[in-house]
Amino acid sequence: MLDELSHDASHSTRGLVAEALDEQRVEIANGIVTRLRKNHDLTVSPLIVRTLVHTLAKALLDGSPDPIVHWSRMVRHAHPAAAVVAMIDTACAIAEEVAHTFNGDLATIVVFLEIVKARAHAITSDEPAVTGDAPGQAAIQSLLAMLRARDDATCSHSQATGEWARRIAQRLGLPPAMTERTVRAGVLHDVGKIRVPDAILFKEGALAAPEWEIMKRHAESGAEILSGIPTLAQYAPIVIAHHERFDGRGYPHGLRGEDISLETRIVSVADSFHAMVSDRPYRRAFSYGEAITILDEGRGTQWDAEVARAMMTLAAEDRNRTADVDTNLHQEHGFYTDLVSIPTLGDSEAI
User: Fold this and answer.
1) CA 97, CA 8: separation in Å to the nearest integer?
2) Assigned CATH class of 152-350
């Protein structure tokens, strides 16, 4: 069901933009020619640019940058690399302007256009062509750039979640490929917050019930965005489920136990831990000791017990390394205290 809805949502937006590009390709091509002359002192054939506009429309419909890559290789015989790159960059800029006229999935369109530009730059440069998963890396960086522009704190949290996910996966002995998939899903887990309204995303204080329902949709929104980007679609099932709970009381689908993938269970713990030890508008950051206690209390209910234990061990090791450095200072001033009041982590604390 998720795949069908995600595909429909992203394909619908891409289809609208692609249709607009094709229907207006003469006017759009003329606009590209004008901008190239003005911004790059470059004169190109309007007919060539029309083929570019048509090819970009096809790439949008296919959800793949390959048509643009093929177009680049063909016109490279008649135009220098700089001209080809300038044409593609300008076409993508106008396509983004067209996308803004629709009330659709703008995030997916913008990221896709960034992927197109990155592939075109690599193909037309003197460096080796993009190989392996470089397009996926470019797409992730584009999404992170968009997220940082929207909310630097969320972007930093996403990157930290990816690093904690890596350490947990390595502690559990996961194979390298599975570890890397988990890390990338961790980095991407909150990308759906791009769609959350500012009044909710930046609210200082607890969310009201209707606001909380909107915030909770970020998991599904993130999955929809990723499903519309071929190189990142594999991470969508992890992202949509990162707020599921081991006891079945999570969202959006109430998955339980091992019905939640191991990668997702790792991202969930990494996400929750970093959220706990970070300052939020509505509360102070928990200490590592407090966070470890909360993880222990939630093992087997909110989180997978084995994954939570791995996180607790890592956090304790980090805390102890820091404590070793400060032991003399703490002893001299009598700073050792017991944890007497551990806050309870509600579902809204790790959003």
Assistant:
1) 22
2) mainly alpha
